Amino acid sequence: MATTTAAAAAKMTGTTAIAVSLALSGCVVANAFRQKKQFYPSVVYICKSNPSMAVMYMQALVAVYFLGKLIGKLFFGQLRAAESERLIEKAWYAVTETCLAFTIFKDDLSPKFVALFTLLLFLKCFHWLAEDRVDYMERTPVISYVFHIRIWSLLIFLTVADIYFVHDAYTTTVAKGPSVQLVFGFEYALLITLVATAAFKYILHSVDVYSDTFWESKAVLLLYLEFFIGLCKAVMYVFFLVIMVRTFTVPLFAFRPMYHTLRNFKKVFQDLVLSRRAIHNMNTLYPDATIQDLQVIENVCIICREDMTAAAAKKLPCNHIFHTSCLRSWFQRHQTCPTCRLDILRPAPITPVETERRPMHRAAQPSTTVPANTHSTADLGNRQGSSIGNRPSGSQTGSRVNNQIPQNFTFKPFNFQQQAPNNENNINNNDPNLNNGLPLHNINESLIQLMNATRLENGNGFGLPPFMNNTEQSNSNLPFNTVPPVPLNFPFVGGVAIQSPHMPPNLDALSDDELRHLEQNTRQACVDRIKFLNDIKCMLDTAAMLMNHYNSAHIISGVDDSDTFIDIVKTSKVTENNEQLETEPSNNISSDIDFNTSNSSNEGTSSSSGSDDQLLPEETEQQRVIRLKRLEKFSNSGNNST
Amino acid sequence: MRYRYNTTNLNGCVIRIFFPPPPYLELTLNPPEGIIAGPITEENYFEWEALITGPEGTCFEGGVFPAKLIFPSDYPLSPPKMSFTCEMFHPNIYSDGRVCISILHAPGDDPMGYESSNERWSPVQSVEKILLSVISMLAEPNDESGANVDAAKMWRENRDEFNKIAEKLVRKTLGIPTNT
């Protein structure tokens, strides 16, 4: 009978449930009176008979349910669809978890216990509804006085109830030892955090509602609130788990909410840390948008679709522009660019870890770095022109070469060109003065001068690579003597440019920032690298110019032994391509690298190499073989790389 | 939200007026083909109703499907929720009508565990884009998503049966009695 009643009550709604339960309990009471005739015997009879008790329980449940509904109506008015949906979902979880809790406390199972759990469930429902209602404040257009009164009275009622039950549970546990009251106490303590959240949110929302302007820091406050509440909950769950395991057994029923709480807390914590970092990045590193930038995107922030002013808009590293406030609220959730999803924490270095030794304007804005570099290169070109133009011999050609030097040399041809004379010179090392009376010493000096200029240009922020320092110190007569024979590739450069940090004893102890710094991922390291590359480029330009100058000096001095050189090339079976590579510096001068033309360019290079050949008429067969091998090797490496 | 200002009515209550969010204007001024959408009431811009026509050349062709969009209070930072209010049978629509596509999921929350983050919600998305994605979802269901496993299975294994059910639904939305 009880089961059918329960099933019917569960299915039927509203009045039918009341009617059925009333009728049934009426029947039971009437039946008892008919049999026992008097009040007390009837009560005893009903209490003794299980089916009658079941009916009475059902009746009580229905009565409580409708009482709850009535109080709900008093506090909330008509529930919205979304609210009741959420309520049913949460209540379902709460009921299943309560059933799990029954398994642990089956000894305590009594009507009082069931009643307490029912009460807890109802109070929980009110807490959830209060939470929903407070959240709804943000969206509803009209907030009446009734709403405020309801929320206030509800929050006070819930707080009082929670504190009373926590206190009750505490005293019972202290007086009678651990029992099911432990669970109640814990649950109500959790509910207190819920009420606290709702109250704080209510205050924040109220302030927001009655302020006419958009309250930006509200979101930050909400995030902090969530963090602290999450922290409280997490600590509570851990305590509860420890106590339960020590006194009873593993509280299975608390695992799901515990998992959710801990996961939420972790997420909030991450959000808090990452968003703080992202917002800090935004405030310190990213430039304000300029008026030109804004015009390109028609002045509209694509997040809120309102107009932007230059002062209130920020430009991300990916060149997307948004309102600062829009970005701030987005960064509290996700630290990516809203448009292209660039992770703004990953590529962008955090605050400069080292103290700046360089002028600030260089490091201030990443976008200005590149133009600044090109500018300095151009500057340098002028300096090169002036310094070489001062030279007594071949000043005409010097200035001509300078004018024609392209600013953007490709890297590879240069290596080749640097090394070809290098090897020649290595072979000729024994007698450098045989260089046909050309003032090589002067050239070398000018090179050193240039390097000094370069260093000055870069504010001496970091040392030139060691080999360049060597050039200076040794004061060699041959400018390319100490250039490393291997092609300069990027990793090598990077390795030299930035001093490798000392290995810290304990990597685990380092903070994220320190690790990032260790990785040379910082802004400082990046700036250093770019500067160093710039220096290399400058040195290469210088080298190219000197080579050209050297060539033209040969032409002027009337040495022309191209036949000999061509002979060598033929005998060594160097490919056509190789020859083109050989001739490249002259091509570069016309700033238009063309691998297929070798008309006029042959002249310059061949004369230079050829003159070397002529200078050593007594070259032994062994040296000749070595040279051929080297030529071949370089032609191969040149081919490979092209 | 930015779309609001406060005013006080005769009884002293604060009334907040929500401006029509610009996506609304966009949609009403030049609606994309096959979409009608707008707030249900003038006072609440956070609940929208949309009518979506089934894309041509698919089994949903000709149908007009009503749907509801619920915007969160922090829109556009969080995605709206969308659910069809008519009966639907589709691999990416739950049996209660909720739509499960990646554009409606915030990055980091992936109910089905297969979506890449670059199709997720971001504040630059608009209602129009959502509705267009829904239309393309109707045309090309993603049978890896398990929002409606029965529909996904049928879509993969028994396309004719799926088409029949879809046709029935289309007829139902148009109010045409089904043949069977």
Give me a quick take on this structure:
The complex is a heterodimer of chains A (642) and B (180). Chain A has 642 residues and is mainly α. Chain A has helices at 2-11, 14-36, 39-48, 50-76, 81-104, 111-137, 145-176, 181-210, 218-247, 255-284, 291-296, 324-331, 360-364, 366-389, 395-404, 411-427, 440-457, 466-474, 490-497, 512-518, 523-557, 562-571, 576-582, 584-589, 599-615, 621-641; strands spanning 142-143, 313-315, 321-323.
Characterization of this structure:
The complex is a heterodimer of chains A (642) and B (180). Chain A has helices at residues 2-11, 14-36, 39-48, 50-76, 81-104, 111-137, 145-176, 181-210, 218-247, 255-284, 291-296, 324-331, 360-364, 366-389, 395-404, 411-427, 440-457, 466-474, 490-497, 512-518, 523-557, 562-571, 576-582, 584-589, 599-615, 621-641; strands spanning 142-143, 313-315, 321-323. Chain A is mostly helical and 642 residues long. In chain A, strands 2-3 form a two-stranded antiparallel sheet. The radius of gyration of chain A is 43 Å and the shape is elongated. Chain B has 180 residues and is of the alpha+beta class. In chain B, a hairpin with a 7-residue loop joins strand 3 (35-39) and strand 4 (47-53). Chain B has a single domain (16-173), classed as Ubiquitin Conjugating Enzyme. Residues 1-17 of chain B have low confidence and may be disordered. Chains A and B meet through strand 1 and helix 12 of A and strand 2 of B. Chain B: Keywords: ATP-binding, Nucleotide-binding, Transferase, Ubl conjugation pathway.
